[in-house]
Amino acid sequence: MNKDHINRESIFLRQAEADDIGALEQLLNRCYRETEGWTNEADLVGGIRITQTELASIIANPKHYLFVYPKTTTGERDGDETGELLGCIAVDMKVNTDANKNVSNKKAYIGMFAVHPELQGQGVGNVILQAAETFAERHLQSDGQASDKNPARLTMSILSHRPELLSYYQRRGYQLNGNKMPFPDDGNNGEPKRQDLELLELEKIINS
User: Fold this and answer.
1) pLDDT digits 0-9 by tens, 1-21
2) DSSP string of 122-180?
3) CA–CA gap between residue 165 and residue 40 (Å, rounded)
4) Mean per-residue pLDDT, 144-161
5) CA distance 110 to 66
6) 43/164 Cα distance (integer angstroms)
7) How far apart (Å, rounded) are the C-alpha atoms in residues 68 and 81?
8) Does the pTM of the predicted model rise above 0.85?
């Protein structure tokens, strides 16, 4: 892969399809579980990150949008896709209504964020994250139910003991909201390598 500085304007996303499942599985497990790049979790979690069955379920869910950045023969949108993926990100729409207060709690959970290790540090992730945020904001605000008292939010979870990753998201407007939970030890999310591992929730308020 060409490691020269990538042209950010050539980065584009499209919605994932069933034919992407194999490449998605390879990209996510490489980025999260191998020791390449600065975003991996290899020192904290072992095992696989995701399976093809899980990916198929996500792609089939109408409220879960999974986007991919495909590699092309020219490096541009109009090139032929090679079948390899250079990045991905998911947006899961969550709208919970409190019947007693007639209030809609609207948020979008951002996850499955990955950039090919050889492209990390070139601003690719910034472009992908911004695109996902813009999509989520437009989707959440389209029905006009958010208010100043109950604004729409973007949320995500990161592993504890990753100060550099927390700083990355804080620079982009995310803050810890106090919600956290022990890393699931059910075998479905990988195998934690330390007992005190937690998932910390971050959120970013969407301006109306």
Assistant:
1) 544 567 888 999 999 999 999
2) TTHHHHHHHHHHHHHHHHHHTT----SSS--EEEEEEESS-HHHHHHHHTTT-EEEEEE
3) 10
4) 80
5) 10
6) 14
7) 12
8) yes
